[in-house]
Amino acid sequence: MVEKYDTVVIGAGPAGTAAASSLKAQGEKVAIVEEDLWGGTCPNRGCDPKKILYAAVEAKAQADLLAGQGLNTQSSIEWSDLMANKRAYTKQISPGTHKSMTSSGIETFTGHAQFVDPHTLEIGQQTIEAQNVIIATGLRPRIPEIKGKEFLQTSTDFLDLDEMPASITIQGGGYVAFELAGIASSAGAKVTLIHHNDRPLKAFPEKLVQTLCDQLSENGVEIILNQEITEVQKDSSGYRVMGNDGFDRETDRVFTAVGRIANVDPLGLDQINVEHSSKGVKVNEHLQSDVTHIYAIGDSAASPVPKLTPVAGFEANYVVEQILGDHTEIKYPLVPTIIFSLPKLSQVGVSVQQAQEDTDRYQVRTTNMEEWITYKRQHEKQVLVQLVIDQKQDKVVGAACLSMEADEMINYLRLLIKHEYSAKEIQQTLFNYPTTASDIQYLY
Fold first, then answer.
1. Mean pLDDT of 332-351
2. Could you tell me the CA-to-CA distances from 405 to 191, 210, 302, 307 in Å, in that order?
3. Rounded Cα distance, 282 and 290, in Å
4. Vertex 49: Cα angle to 22 and 10 (nearest 5)
5. pTM above 0.90?
6. pLDDT tens-digit profile of 71-121?
7. What pLDDT does residue 396 have?
8. Is the CB of residue 282 less than 8 Å from the CB of residue 275?
9. Structural contact between residues 57 and 63, judged by C-beta atoms closer than 8 angstroms
10. CA-CA distance, 151 to 76, in Å (whole number)?
11. CA-to-CA distance for 245 and 51, rounded, in angstroms?
């Protein structure tokens, strides 16, 4: 007998589990398939464990800023203790997620799912059928095709290091590269970050990125731009990283952070005529693939939004409504993005780059807040905020922040942008003072 389900979800990360749970709660017969860790990348080897490591790094950074300003303790990162703290959290995620699925009455399968036809999946020796299928298989790190690529490690390896090496080299110029660089440098490693062109973090404002690079450099991170890594060799003392024009560097570990690839290529999508690429499954305005009862959500969908956990949850909830009968096109809310480096860099809404391409409509206002009490009290330097103003509407429509408080600041700004607050309305809104929130009235 082939077991039949209303919906089968492939992938038990934040997107897949949210969709499966919601559909089950609405009375559907649901199955979910996972071939790796239940819970997915974010809580097992991504944003959650990274933030646990970053908590200690952030505390150390703030203590260092106050050294000699009334705080006399000498702070340092105890990597083994920090890793034990991280592992105490992550070890419970996979079994806990699997248990929550089964206790909800969702049928669970552990193994690799492969399409036999548009409604039929094989999982090992088992065959199941589904009226609807949701692909939520996430991303995997991209490994560049260079000589010695077998010596490259990824963020997965970094976030589970038993010891922090004395020196590390990071290949890449995106979110992950900058986050790992900040953590490793704070933990005492000599860090070299190598990027192939002169514009790292290209999605963020150039002025803020340059300031972040300057601050990381002051903290001991060597940033090398316009250098292509062409080979990695292993020797008796560690590794050698080689590049163009005779570049040659010795290091204890080499980590690559040059993007991620959607985990959709092993599913057998070609034989059921579902278009896909390294960016994910091609989807329409309803998150449907070329085969309309097969959906893709989260990191598995080639949708025009950042690949973030909140977005995955949003898309999961949307697809649930589609399956239950709602046929409205998806409309994404404002999506804030952040890099947990030292300091943090975050943005939302219309970008500075977009504004600079349309100066007739937009104005960019840059403010250095280091003399403001919020930052002066903690001795933080080069605290920058850039606001994008729509001059036709006289409204703030975008923002970017660089500071240790950027995560909170951007959340406040996102709400104000969404609800189109004017400067006058901000002035009439009372916040606790002095706080990150109360600073906003002076920006507008």
1. 98
2. 24, 18, 31, 23
3. 8
4. 35
5. yes
6. 887 789 999 999 999 999 999 999 999 999 999 999 999 999 999 999 999
7. 97
8. yes
9. no
10. 29
11. 37
Query: DSSP letters of 129-182?
Result: EEEEEEE---EEE-----BTGGG-B-HHHHTT-SS--SEEEEE--SHHHHHHHH
**What average pLDDT score do residues 185-193 get?**
97
Task: Give the pLDDT score at 216.
Answer: 98
Quick one: pLDDT band at residue 1, thresholds 50, 70, 90? confident
Q: According to the model, what pLDDT value does residue 325 have?
A: 96
Alpha-carbon distances, residue 419 vs 281, 333, 348, 354, 416 (angstroms)? 33, 12, 14, 21, 5
Residue type for 337, please?
T
User: Max alpha carbon distance in the chain (Å)?
Assistant: 73
290 touches 99 (CB < 8 A): no
Burial class of residue 13 in the structure, from the number of CB atoms within 10 Å of its CB (0-12 exposed, 13-18 middle, 19+ buried):
buried
Name the residue among 271, 28, 46, 48 with its Cα closest to residue 134. Answer: 28
Q: Which two tokens stand for residue 250?
A: 């010795």
